[in-house]
Specification:
Number of strands: 0
Number of domains: 2
Order of helices and strands: HHHHHHH
Shape: elongated
Helix content: 55-70%
Oligomer: single chain
């Protein structure tokens, strides 16, 4: 089933700062839909890392002595977010809220834009 689903991969290249969160959301949706076990979630997450991120993750495991078999998904997310959810991501989100003003938008357009910024 895993191969059939073709989960999102992440290679470390971010065209925009939301790419990291989008990858996490895609993985969480996959986990929720299929009800994967804790061990499967951990394995699928790290299997989905490609190129630079895969090399980075191997380095982190070696330097910190992490045994992937015993690692939890929340531990992985902590390391991953520290590396890839930089201050830039949060600065971009903050700037988006700061720049948001109703101007000529209807209430519906404004609400839609506000909700988009929350994602």
């Amino acid at each position: 089933m895993f191969k059939k689903e073709k989960p999102h991969t992440f290679d470390g290249e971010m065209k925009k700062s939301q790419d990291v969160e989008a990858w996490f959301l895609g993985m969480n949706m996959l986990f929720r839909v299929h009800g994967y076990s804790k061990n499967m979630k951990d394995g699928i997450s790290t299997f989905s890392l490609k190129i630079k991120v895969d090399i980075w993750w191997d380095d982190v495991k070696n330097v910190r002595g992490i045994w992937e078999e015993k690692m939890t998904l929340s531990e992985f997310k902590k390391h991953f977010r520290k590396k890839y959810l930089s201050e830039r991501f949060y600065d971009d989100r903050e700037r988006g809220f700061y720049d948001l003003n109703m101007g000529c938008m209807t209430n519906e357009e404004y609400t839609s834009r506000f909700l988009e910024l929350l994602r």
